[in-house]
């Protein structure tokens, strides 16, 4: 069967509530022969579908199906689901520090950190996080206790660079954080 038709067939069987576990399972299967840094950097590719299809080529049927499942789920959803895994590979202070960036600077900041990283795992993780929206990054930090704690410590002691006004608002759902990458809640 043609690759695109297989992706469509897999996509037609996906149930919304099972997608996160399918994505995690697909990545675990792919990790049998591919380092996590290479997986994350492939999933961070600007040409997501072509990169994932290329990664699937020449694999055994189980690994190929895993990669094609990632293709069927789609770039934004896969990146959102795997952002937790990326943060496990990075310094929590650096990840939390991204919230002090303006929303249009997040991708560039992640790319700079990727280029400066010493290990492939961190390189792929930074590239993947660079695709998160400001709201997605804030949700990630809010949802991960070690990231939230680090962000709160940074906020209490003054933000990196010290040139911007410190926020007095808590990192909470639907709240604007002054000078940070969180967008105001829609009225």
Task: Please explain how this structure is put together.
- This protein has helices spanning 3-13, 19-30, 36-43, 48-56, 61-73, 75-88, 92-97, 106-116, 120-129, 134-143, 145-157.
- By secondary structure, it is mainly alpha-helical.
- It has 2 domains: 3-74, no CATH class; 89-187, no CATH class.
- The radius of gyration is 18 Å and the shape is elongated.
- It starts with a helix and ends in a 30-residue tail after the last helix.
Notable characteristics:
mainly alpha, 2 domains, 63% helix, elongated, disordered C terminus
Strand content: under 5%
- Strand pairing plus helix content: what structural class? mainly alpha
| Average residue-wise pLDDT | 85
- How many distinct domains? 2
Q: Order of SSEs, N→C?
A: HHHHHHHHHHH
How many DSSP H or I helices? 11
Please summarize the sheet with the most strands.
none
Termini separation: 48 Å
Number of strands: 0
How much helix, percentage-wise, in residues? 55-70%
Instruction: Show unreliable segments.
Output: 161-187
Task: Based on Cα principal axes, name the global outline.
Answer: elongated
Instruction: Indicate the radius of gyration in whole angstroms.
Output: 18 Å
Summarize the structure.
Helices cover 63% and strands 0% of the residues. It has 187 residues and is an all-alpha fold.
What is the topological layout?
Layout: H1 3-13, H2 19-30, H3 36-43, H4 48-56, H5 61-73, H6 75-88, H7 92-97, H8 106-116, H9 120-129, H10 134-143, H11 145-157
């Amino acid at each position: 069967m043609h690759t695109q038709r297989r992706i469509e067939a897999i996509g037609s069987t996906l149930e919304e509530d099972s997608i996160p576990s399918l994505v995690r399972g697909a990545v675990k299967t792919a990790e049998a022969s591919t380092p996590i840094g290479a997986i994350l950097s492939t999933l961070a590719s600007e040409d997501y579908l072509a990169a994932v299809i290329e990664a699937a080529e020449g694999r055994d049927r189980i690994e190929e199906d895993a990669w094609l499942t990632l293709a069927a789920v789609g770039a934004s959803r896969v990146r959102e689901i795997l952002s937790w895994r990326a943060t496990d590979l990075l310094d929590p202070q650096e990840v939390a520090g991204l919230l002090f960036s303006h929303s249009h600077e997040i991708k560039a900041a992640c790319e700079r950190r990727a280029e400066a990283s010493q290990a492939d795992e961190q390189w792929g993780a930074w590239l993947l996080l660079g695709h998160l929206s400001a709201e997605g990054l804030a949700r990630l930090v809010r949802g991960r206790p070690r990231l939230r704690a680090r962000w709160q410590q940074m906020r209490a002691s003054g933000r990196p660079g010290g040139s911007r006004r410190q926020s007095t608002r808590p990192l909470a759902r639907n709240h604007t954080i002054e000078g940070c990458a969180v967008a105001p809640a829609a009225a």
